[in-house]
Q: What sequence folds into this?
């Protein structure tokens, strides 16, 4: 069973899903979460809700707005883009990760809104 809530990332609504540990929506058995920038959805496995996992997935979401996949950037350029994204959004991402963490834990423990 999946539970969800919405958050705003870069002015867009993204859906955060809490899914069962065996849910096939997340590729790979070792993955605790997965971000889909095209659909603006992030899936978290119920047993893998950690602040590190949330930060990792939010970073993917924010990084998707840099559109670097179309630029053919080299390693140094990608590092610079990443550093700029961090410089301007790190506090926002950390605050958001803490809020997402709280909501995911609440969903996990209280079986919130069902999809």
A:
């Amino acid at each position: 069973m999946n539970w969800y809530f919405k958050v705003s990332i870069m002015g867009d609504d993204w859906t955060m899903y809490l899914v069962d540990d065996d849910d096939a929506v997340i590729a790979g058995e070792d993955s605790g979460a997965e971000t889909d920038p095209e659909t603006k959805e992030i899936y978290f496995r119920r047993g893998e809700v950690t602040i590190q996992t949330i930060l990792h997935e939010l970073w993917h979401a924010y990084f998707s707005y840099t559109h670097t996949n179309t630029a053919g950037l080299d390693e140094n350029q990608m590092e610079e883009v990443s550093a700029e994204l961090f410089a301007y959004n790190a506090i926002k991402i950390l605050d958001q990760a803490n809020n997402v963490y709280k909501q995911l834990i609440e969903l996990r423990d209280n079986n919130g809104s069902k999809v």
In short: The chain has two helices and four strands. The first strand starts at residue 3 and ends at 9.
